[in-house]
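Q: Structure tokens for this one, please.
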Amino acid sequence: MKLIVILICLLGLRYLQIGRTPARYNWFESYVIAAQKLLNSIGSPWVVTGLVLLPIMLVLFLLQIGLAHGIFYILEFFLCIAVLWYCLWPISLQEYLDSSLAKQMAANDPTDESLNDDDAVNTEDDSRALVEAMLCHANSRTFAIVFWFVILGPCGAMLYRTIAQLTKLSSRPNDKLNAIARCAHILEDVLDWLPARLVGLGYSVAGNFTKGFSEWLHYAKNGFNSNQDLLISSGLGAMGLDADGESDAEEARQVLRMIERSLVVWLVVIAIFTLGAWLY
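A: Here is the predicted structure, written as tokens:
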């Protein structure tokens, strides 16, 4: 069932436009601020972080358990679709790439009289930053969500998404929210550790395996704070790109195609395990 749910959600986010906006997570910040005020007397940000996540996870866990058997099984199927669709980042990497490249072109357009020389950007440096961002975003926006959905069902996907949203609060001026966000950032690194290594391995399989796997081995045993370095190095290695070199728009598009091939590799592996479970 999980494979079917994943395919439905990925295809839906690719071809449907309904609800595809990051604004659908805006309620979460208001919820966290309200919860923080209610829990203001608790000094430990770890306890506050746990209590903020608890109601959401508890409700979803009870729904997941309650719908797991009997005539409610079909309702669990629709619950899985709704939760995974909601947790997957609504803006695709293709849209992110197109938007970023359009901004680069606009910033370097010599016919735009509203810009001065200081507004221009270094296209090569910007493209390399874009490539590295895509290699990391692919994990946090799609692969890690799918991984935890496969492992823990809807609760796993929602746990990762809520923690990822908590980390975004670190830019807020509220000191208490910053403390909560720092705790969430540590939790996100922990949840990312295994998915990031599987994603990096997927990059190697989908690209130049020898170079990508060599870079992957260099970081695979490192700690939780090495996740982004592993993703970037293994992705660049799989593309045969120099870590200290420059990129252009075409290389960014090639990286996107490699990420899409990696997703296909993941789906094939999930299908194999699903088929094996059915046969068993």
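A few notes: The chain has eleven helices and no strands. The longest helix spans residues 175-206.
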